[in-house]
Task: inverse folding
């Protein structure tokens, strides 16, 4: 863990504890205070990431943050000394001296994301722009217990390692919930009681010798969806899926760089869950329990769910998938999504997971049709594919701390 990463994390926590969080639609203002040096560095890095290879001038950075030009010059000099920022050429002259542009250097640090599913694992290594530079996948028996899974994770991280030894900011590991994100401890995952209370984050930090972030797979899906807006600014970034794509949207479609202020990510795989991206960051709830979307009851006295209840969205949807009735599965997913939209009033509903990936048109159309029928407001949320995987989102959660965002 490098000094800059530590400083950014400490400063972000100070800002969060000091209630300097920004609500939906507010700009991200800087603060000329020595105690917030790391926060201001992260703020400039975030703007440069959103600008892509073209970069921004110091005057633009000052105008967007409210920092003084002198403060911006000092901060960018420090970032340049760390190799994180470099000159990107000069902007066209508008009558005066051409402005020097600065850009983020995405290859100087990497992050790793690992997605633990009930029957498989995928690991990726990404650069600071969020682009995948290495990946690995393979089988995983979640029921074999946490010790066996730890060995699989350690081997996967080694496989995506960089022979050039680019410094790693850390490893994001995501798994089915419930779990305690703050403590790094697993909860009683439905159907897998042996995981309850296992300190996965601490064990992996000891084995890997790197900072480890533990979160739910659905929260990583939400972070991946938000990160896709930033990756779009960089060459070779993953393109959004054609199906369900919001054609008018782009990196600058919202007031704050980084995508929609409010969206839900719905994951349909071996289970159902939701990730919530609210007011510029992942919303986890007071006990890291937010997003248990699959266990809302739609049918009283319906079929029993593995959670112990009856008629949950998860059991109804997955039973429809098992019998090959994907339109019905999409309709059930849409009914659950409509409940969530009515509760949270989000801008976008983003779909992901292996079941959705197998029939994207069916699920996008099905969910969209239900929302159109049940919408209380004519300005309905966009329904689209997430456009990025959960493992990428796990890595994005690690990057979030460097860029001063609330995702991690």
Result:
């Amino acid at each position: 863990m490098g000094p800059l990463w530590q400083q950014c994390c400490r400063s972000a926590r100070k800002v969060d504890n000091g209630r300097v969080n920004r609500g939906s639609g507010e700009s991200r203002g800087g603060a000329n205070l020595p105690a917030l040096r790391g926060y201001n560095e992260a703020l400039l890095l975030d703007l440069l990431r959103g600008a892509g290879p073209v970069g921004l001038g110091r005057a633009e950075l000052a105008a967007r943050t409210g920092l003084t030009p002198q403060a911006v010059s000092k901060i960018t000099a420090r970032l340049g000394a760390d190799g994180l920022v470099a000159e990107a050429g000069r902007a066209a002259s508008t009558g005066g001296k051409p402005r020097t542009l600065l850009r983020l250097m995405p290859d100087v640090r990497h992050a790793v994301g690992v997605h633990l599913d009930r029957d498989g694992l995928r690991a990726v290594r990404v650069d600071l722009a969020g682009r995948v530079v290495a990946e690995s996948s393979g089988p995983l028996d979640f029921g074999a217990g946490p010790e066996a899974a730890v060995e699989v994770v350690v081997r996967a991280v080694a496989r995506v390692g960089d022979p050039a030894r680019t410094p790693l900011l850390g490893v994001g590991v995501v798994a089915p919930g419930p779990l305690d994100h703050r403590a790094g401890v697993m909860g009683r995952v439905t159907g897998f009681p042996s995981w309850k209370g296992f300190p996965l984050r601490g064990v992996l930090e000891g084995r890997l010798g790197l900072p480890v972030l533990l979160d739910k797979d659905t929260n990583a899906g939400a972070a991946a969806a938000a990160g896709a807006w930033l990756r779009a600014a960089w060459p070779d970034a993953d393109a959004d899926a054609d199906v369900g794509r919001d054609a008018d949207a782009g990196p600058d479609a919202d007031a704050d760089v980084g995508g929609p202020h409010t969206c839900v990510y719905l994951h349909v795989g071996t289970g159902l869950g939701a990730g919530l991206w609210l007011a510029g960051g992942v919303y986890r709830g007071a006990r890291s329990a937010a997003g248990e979307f699959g266990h809302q009851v739609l049918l009283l006295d319906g079929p029993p769910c593995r959670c112990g209840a009856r008629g949950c969205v998860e059991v109804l949807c997955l039973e429809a998938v098992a019998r090959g009735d994907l339109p019905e599965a999409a309709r059930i997913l849409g009914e659950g999504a409509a409940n969530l939209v009515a509760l949270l009033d989000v801008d976008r509903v983003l779909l992901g997971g292996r079941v959705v990936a197998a029939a994207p048109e069916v699920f996008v159309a099905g969910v969209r049709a239900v929302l159109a029928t049940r919408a209380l407001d004519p300005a309905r949320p966009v329904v689209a594919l997430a456009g990025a995987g959960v493992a990428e989102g796990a890595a994005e959660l690690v990057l979030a701390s460097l860029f001063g965002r609330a995702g991690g």
The CA atoms of residues 77 and 265 lie 38 Å apart. The chain is about 35% helix and 20% strand.
